[in-house]
Amino acid sequence: MVQPPTIDSTHDDLGLLQELLAAPPPVRSSLHRPAQLRSLKEERKTALQGYRFRGVLDAILVRSERLLILGVIVFFGYWVVNIYGRDWWYARSNPAAPAPVWEALAPGASAAELDQVLGQQLPVIAPAISAAAPDYLEPAQAFILQPATPTPTPDPMSLVPKRIIVPTMQLDSPIHEVFLRDGIWEVADYAVGYHHGTALPGKGNTVFAGHAGIRGSVFGRLNELQLGHDIYVETADTRYHYQVQTIQQVWPNQVEVMYPTEQAIITMITCTAWDTQRLVVKARLIDQAALSS
């Protein structure tokens, strides 16, 4: 087998080396920065310099996240105490209420049936007692001397609504008068609020409002009312029987639902749609009757 000729490249390498040594140095357009000798700590600091801002931002975000979580916990705790804590304390501080009237009242019961169920809970109107003539006076003389009986003037407080009963909602609640404060109507706690200045029952548009989800939730089931359902409003000596006429949702600025009317109606208002709207139920007067035993 014929071996290939070996090539001695020593001569070529030496010639190339001599050529490179004899050649002039290349011309550079700019000088390089001289090398710096730094410690490992300084080198790491220089290499990570671009990430410093990201580290500060991460720290701010972490602290903000912790503050946000703490704020949520504080808000949730305040919400629980303010709503459920108040309800618990109110139930503990007040004596047990009597059995609700709707437990003995059949659906669609009339006002007469409601009178029968309430029984002794109704106030009694005492009859007017006229002064008897003395025995020693003659009938004609007694007739002459007997003073005329003045027409009694009704007590204004006896005309203010005191109680509301809605069997469909299982509601039997006292009514407290509320007022307009700084352009905002007050809302009664653990009771139905009667808007001061609106019509008295049987006289026009009587406006009631109540909470739907807190502090008694007296109107929490207002959305269960339907057309024709009965509502009873009591003053000191009269019960007014209403029937639901309209149900609607309005925006908070639609205050025309509280405007006076010639027809005797009641307007019941509560919050709905996460407190962005108002649920409004209007009922017209059907009849009225004096409370008696």
UniProtKB/TrEMBL annotation:
Pfam families: Sortase
Name the UniProt record assigns to this protein: Sortase
Keywords (A to Z) from UniProt: Hydrolase, Membrane, Transmembrane, Transmembrane helix
Gene Ontology MF, one: hydrolase activity
Domain of life: Bacteria
Membrane-traversing stretches: 67-85
UniProt keyword Ligase present: no
UniProt keyword Cell membrane, yes or no: no
